[in-house]
Design a protein that fits this description.
heterodimer; A: mainly alpha; ABC transporter involved in vitamin B12 uptake, BtuC; disordered N terminus; B: 269 residues; transmembrane (chain A)
């Protein structure tokens, strides 16, 4: 170690320029892909609309038939895939980074399961549908998140306890859902099951507007949240030594993540694994030099858009988006667990 | 950065559950000096340091920073004056050295006041001081234990606080790296006037490098003062339950502890 001197900051500046370039390039590319996929999902279908006509039709310009197909049949679904994908991607990466675990996504922490239980209960017991059903799902997700936080509290919330309590509460919620579905009328059970798989096609313009407003609020508060996260993910004590209020910041960040996933689930049902995959895939795109909530959100959009395009058009008949994401998510979990086990045995 | 910040405990009692671990400690940490807290395991030395770092709230008594109760100050204000390297911190998965060290600038930034030239200069100074400038783009998880410890210290240095607390910073380091680290702390202390307070396990290193030793046992201060005053055969017996000889370090004259053990012939008796 050499003596303490006062260099001009070239090493730090060069590295920062490098990571900022990589981040900028990744965000631009991902944004372009999101736009491209959005247009593609307007274009393809039983009637193929040329891209320019499709974009114009979103603004109500063009032949009546085309405007109808785009605005009434495809626009909401295409928009939902992008916006809900962003919400899920941001939610997942917040959970993962606050809790310091790649598997700590809302898929496993009970929030999505709780939303599902509330929706199933409303559907089976109350015959509720549509916007009200989404309201129940939203409340269910938020209530479950609050319950997990409360149960995990013991002089503060530790990451480990939050994950374990979340998994437990999630399992409990799933079993209640199964019970509700099992004792339901046949048609209700069918509706509940199809809701529980989750599909972008379930989104309505009203729900989409809620998601959009939420994302605008998120964009405004983004820099503050990122600042909290940068300190908190170092651990409680280092964060507090940097002047952060670790307990409060964790509450805020988990709260934002829970609201995002609850609203997303209310809009499209519990589409599996998008939240879990977005952060790690964005990290691969970014490389080790930078981390970004925004890139994770955009990656979430790409995943959900691709999954929904596959769900609608890959097979002869359309399937739910959740079926596709589930099929891709499961091998990823296996891979994470296997590589974690390998690291443990090697280290 | 004012180098003359004064940290002081008055009647400080600290604890984790119901049992207090540190009892009614009165201690002034002199500004611009290196103070080492020594003692056996479970003597309360790390707890006392955590109390000074405001990681523990006092059960009774108070910690004063420049005469103001530490727990009533705004965390962000404290973080510009008082930094600490916690024991065995764990970096987030995949984070690079430059990213981690850069986060030491957190208290100097805000929601809207972002990265500045001063931040770059502080990070560079910290990287060079800890000889980690070559590692900037490496993930922290891939480094050796000694390198990782230096990177965390670099983060604490980038924070540019007038007071730096370190909880057993030499643990897990080879002896040469322990010496390098302590030399670095002396550099910091001499060139910037940084007040340094560290918990050290190794008694001889503490006596060699600290201006002031604080010896603890069972949550109380047994003795505090310059090494020549504190490190005596009698104090070492009281603090560590260890029979020893104390001789002067041939190079610096600092007191050196030579444990006697059961098998040494009793020639010096």
């Amino acid at each position: 170690m050499t003596a303490v001197m006062a260099p001009v900051g070239t090493t730090a500046r060069r590295f920062r320029a490098l990571s900022r370039r990589r981040l900028g390039a990744t965000v631009v590319v991902l944004s372009a892909v999101v736009v491209l996929l959005f247009v593609v999902s307007l274009v393809v279908g039983s009637v193929v609309v040329p891209p320019v006509d499709a974009v114009l039709a979103t603004f109500g310009v063009g032949e009546d038939a085309t405007v109808f197909v785009i605005q009434e049949l495809r626009l909401t679904r295409a928009g939902a895939a992008a916006l809900v994908g962003i919400a899920l991607g941001v939610s997942g990466t917040l959970f993962q980074r606050v809790l310091g675990n790649p598997l700590a996504s809302p898929d496993f922490l009970g929030v999505a399961a709780g939303a599902g239980t509330a929706a199933a209960a409303a559907l089976v017991l109350g015959g509720v549908a549509g916007f009200t059903l989404s309201g129940y799902a939203l409340l269910g997700g938020l209530a479950t998140a609050a319950l997990v936080y409360f149960l995990a509290w013991h002089r503060g919330v530790s990451e480990y306890r939050f994950i374990l309590v979340g998994i437990g509460v999630g399992a409990l919620a799933s079993s209640v859902t199964s019970y509700l579905v099992a004792r339901a009328e046949f048609s209700d059970a069918r509706a509940a099951l199809s809701w529980l798989v989750g599909s972008v096609g379930m989104a309505t313009p009203g729900l989409l507007r809620v998601v959009a407003v939420l994302l605008v609020v998120l964009a405004v508060s983004g820099p503050g949240l990122a600042r909290m996260l940068r300190a908190l993910e170092l651990g409680d004590e280092p964060a507090r030594m940097l002047g952060a209020r670790a307990e409060r910041d964790r509450f805020v960040l988990l709260g934002v993540a829970a609201v995002l996933v609850s609203v997303a689930t209310a809009a499209v049902g519990p589409v599996a694994f998008v939240a879990m995959l977005a952060g790690p895939l964005a990290a691969i795109a970014l490389g080790p030099t930078s981390r970004s909530i925004l890139a994770s959100g955009l990656m979430g959009a790409v995943i959900l858009q691709v999954a929904d395009l596959l769900a609608q058009h890959a097979l002869a008949w359309p399937i739910s988006t959740g079926v596709v994401t589930g099929a891709f998510g499961a091998p990823y979990i296996a891979w994470v667990l296997i590589s974690a086990a390998r690291e443990t045995s090697a280290g | 950065m004012r180098p003359d910040h004064l940290l002081e405990a008055r009647g400080l009692t600290l604890g984790y559950d119901t049992t207090p671990v540190v009892h009614e400690v009165d201690l002034v940490l002199p500004a611009g000096r290196i103070t080492a807290i020594i003692g056996a395991n479970a003597s309360g030395k790390s707890t006392l340091l955590r109390g000074f770092a405001r990681l523990l709230e006092p059960r009774a008594g108070v910690v004063l920073l420049d005469g103001e109760p530490l727990h009533r100050m705004r965390p962000g204000d404290v973080a510009r004056v008082l930094g600490m390297l916690p024991q065995a911190p764990v970096a987030p998965d995949g984070i690079t050295v430059a990213d981690l060290v850069g986060r030491g600038r957190h208290p100097h930034q805000g929601w809207f006041r972002r990265w500045s030239a001063a931040d770059d200069a502080a990070v560079d100074a910290a990287l060079h001081a800890t000889a980690t400038a070559d590692l900037v783009d490496r993930p922290v998880a891939e480094l050796s234990g000694g390198q990782r410890q230096r990177v965390w210290i670099a983060m604490a240095l980038a924070q540019q606080t007038g007071i730096l607390l370190l909880d057993e910073p030499t643990t897990f380091l080879d002896l040469n790296h322990q010496i390098e680290l302590l030399d670095l702390l002396v550099d910091l202390n001499r060139q910037r006037g940084t007040t340094i307070v560290l918990v050290l396990h190794e008694l001889n290193l503490a006596a060699r490098y600290a201006d002031l030793l604080v010896a603890m046992r069972s949550g109380r201060i047994v003795d505090a003062g310059p090494p020549a005053q504190v490190v005596t055969a009698a104090t070492v017996r009281d603090v560590f339950d260890l029979r020893c000889d104390v001789i002067p370090d041939p190079r610096t004259g600092a007191p050196m502890v030579i444990p006697i053990g059961r098998h040494a012939p009793s020639t010096t008796g």
